[in-house]
Design a protein that fits this description.
By secondary structure, the chain is of the alpha+beta class. It is 68% helix and 12% strand. The two termini are 78 Å apart.
Length: 647
């Protein structure tokens, strides 16, 4: 065991070596046992198949005898006999060749293989030909005397063939008996190895692992009672030797720490006080920035707290003007007017502040007249002894910087720089939120204007287009002298003018089209009837499923899309029939608007039409309610608009 301790290498390598040896031995024994077991299984299957040969032999003799005795049953019996002969031949081939999947195979002993060869040769050269010739005699309805001779020959062959089968079965059984004894030996050896190996592993792990762990535990208990003079013996080169060496180094270090403990506690107390002030500042900054206020108020509330913490005499906030690539003051406190005017537009990359904004890094410096590149000359002229420039960041994007000006020499520590950078990120996010709020207001105004333009297109523009068509039709009727038709056209013009008036009045009040029906199907049917009455184009509405209830906003947008599609049919399709189909399946509401008009080439005409106001509004309205709007068309075969809305 001592020799084992002195072996080179790590403890893990030693343990791995022991386990590998045990594993290989156990794997070998298990593999041999499995091999012998498979031999037994294959031999047992071979015994069953060989035993079945005897039954088939007697069966063949019985079938031929019955065929001779009962002529009326000969066709059936001879067919069954031929089938049995084929099965017999297949069984002999199976026993001889084996079947690894079952498994089934003969033992490898020479005596077994020789006996199988004799049996196979007897069947192929004597017994099978005799059986087949007998069957031919039976089929030819030979004389009773000839058949009797054949049966006597078969009886003789059966008496000589069955003992060969019995000899084969006996030899296989003897081989299986030997394998069974061998398996018993392997199993006993495996049990003995498991017992001996377990005891040996317990002993080895006791000496290699448990004893060193107990020594280490005893040393830790002594150290827990302030006995820092405890040391562990280092007698091994493995992991426990390294642990002992590390334990001894730790004991030395603890002795040194214990001697200077009071001094270290005081230093840590001061550090914790600084961290507490920094965390308090960040908390106050975060709380202040949540208040809704202008930039000047937010910056003053944040930077006045920072100013008090680091002892600055003044501060300023500069934002990047992306148009001209410069920094501009937006708010400042206790900064001379001359400095504000001198650096009102400071290019990015120029001076300390320009570099901080361009590289998005914090910089600090002391103004001197001999500074390289003339840095901080303006600050030097105003009497500042130190300047810090901290970037304002929001989502890793630089918005500007904030400055801290010091009237006395001041060097910022690393932890102070990190604190100021954190403040810069908080203030940057607040500034970005203010900018986003301003942009949101602008977007709201733009969206309101866009909505008004869409409403004008969907209502007034379509009505005016209709009135233009009706006016042309009225003019044609008057030229033809068709007064009755002219009166009808005039009535439609009057109706269109009234509708335009109603739409304008409602746009002025609500900026929306009035919906007379709260149900989508009723609204579309009403629009289809109005379209058919105005244009004369046959318009049908087909409902395939029960349409679920939708919000008024969704119904309004869907109705606008349908109206725009019908308006395009009227303007461009030259169609005589329009079909609107509604279905609700698989969690989707589908609306199809199909016409039989002239259609167009989708790749060219449609791409050129994407700038068309109507198509753009259809897509925008569909996107607004989370729907998909697609258009398919073929020249001469009409156009279809497919609108799919997830329910």
């Amino acid at each position: 065991m001592r020799l084992f301790h002195r072996l080179p290498g790590k403890l893990a390598s030693k343990i791995d070596g022991i386990l590998v040896v045990f594993f290989l031995f156990a794997l070998t024994m298990i593999g041999m046992t499995l091999y012998v077991g498979r031999q037994l299984e294959g031999g047992a299957a071979a015994i069953n198949e060989a035993g079945a040969l005897r039954m088939r032999t007697y069966r063949l003799g019985y079938l031929l005898e019955q065929a001779m005795l009962y002529p009326e049953l000969r066709p059936h019996l001879t067919n069954e006999a031929r089938t049995t002969i084929e099965e017999f031949t297949a069984a002999i081939a199976l026993i001889d060749n084996g079947d690894p999947e079952r498994p089934l195979f003969l033992p490898r002993e020479k005596i077994v293989r020789d006996q199988m060869s004799m049996l196979k040769q007897h069947w192929q050269e004597r017994f099978e030909p005799l059986l087949r010739s007998t069957l031919m005699e039976v089929d030819k309805q030979a004389s009773a005397t000839a058949l009797r001779r054949k049966m006597e020959g078969i009886d003789s062959e059966v008496r000589s063939f069955v003992p060969q089968i019995n000899a084969l079965v006996l030899q296989i059984e003897n081989s299986n008996a030997q394998h069974t004894a061998l398996m018993w030996t392997f199993q006993n050896a495996l049990v003995g190895f498991a017992l001996f190996g377990t005891l040996l592993l317990i002993y080895l792990f006791r000496r290699l692992v448990i004893d060193p762990v107990e020594q280490l535990q005893q040393g830790m208990e002594r150290m827990a009672h302030a006995d820092f003079g405890v040391r562990l013996p280092v007698s091994r080169s493995d992991e426990f030797g390294e642990l002992a060496t590390g334990f001894n180094r730790m004991a030395d270090h603890l002795q040194d720490l214990y001697a200077t403990l009071e001094q270290r506690v005081q230093q840590k107390t001061r550090d914790l006080a600084i961290r507490a002030r920094e965390l308090g500042l960040l908390y106050e900054v975060a709380a202040h920035l949540t208040e809704p206020a202008e930039l000047a108020y937010l910056a003053q509330g944040v930077l006045e707290r920072v100013r008090e913490l680091v002892g600055a005499s003044g501060w300023a906030v500069r934002l990047i003007d992306e148009k001209n690539g410069s920094l501009s003051f937006v708010v400042a406190k206790d900064v001379p007017e001359d400095l504000l005017q001198a650096e009102a537009q400071l290019p990015l990359g120029v001076c300390l502040c320009g570099r901080a904004a361009e590289k998005e890094q914090a910089f600090a410096g002391c103004p001197r007249p001999d500074n390289e590149d003339g840095l901080l000359l303006n600050c030097y002229r105003e009497g500042f002894q130190a300047v810090a420039a901290i970037p304002l960041l929001a989502k890793n994007r630089g918005l500007g910087i904030f400055n801290l000006f010091f009237a006395t020499p001041r060097t910022l520590e690393e932890n102070e720089i990190r604190l100021l950078e954190a403040v810069g990120r908080h203030l940057g996010v607040a500034i970005e939120n203010l900018q986003l709020a301003e942009r949101e207001k602008e977007m709201a105004v733009s969206e309101e204007r866009n909505l008004l333009a869409q409403e004008l297109h969907d209502s007034i523009a379509q009505n005016l287009a209709f009135l233009n068509i009706q006016t042309q039709m009225l003019d044609a009727s008057l030229r033809d002298g068709d007064i009755e038709t002219a009166r009808e056209e005039l009535a439609r013009i009057r109706e269109g003018i009234q509708e335009s008036y109603d739409n304008v009045r409602e746009l002025l009040v609500h900026f929306r089209i009035r919906i007379e029906h709260s149900d989508l199907v009723e609204a579309i049917e009403s629009a289809a009837q109005k379209f058919e009455g105005q244009t004369g184009i046959v318009t049908r509405v087909e409902l395939h499923d029960e349409i679920p209830s939708l919000s008024p906003t969704t119904i309004l947008q869907l109705l606008h899309i349908v109206q725009e599609a019908l308006s395009n049919v009227r303007k461009h399709a030259q169609a005589s029939q329009v079909m609107i189909s509604l279905s609700a399946r698989d969690g989707e509401l589908a609306i199809y608007i199909c016409d039989n008009g002239v259609g167009f080439t989708l790749r060219q005409d449609f791409e050129s039409a994407t700038g068309h106001v109507g198509i753009g509004i259809m897509r925008e309205r569909a996107h607004r309610i989370g729907a998909r709007c697609t258009i398919a068309s073929t020249p001469g075969e009409g156009t279809s608009v497919r609108l799919v809305l997830p329910i």
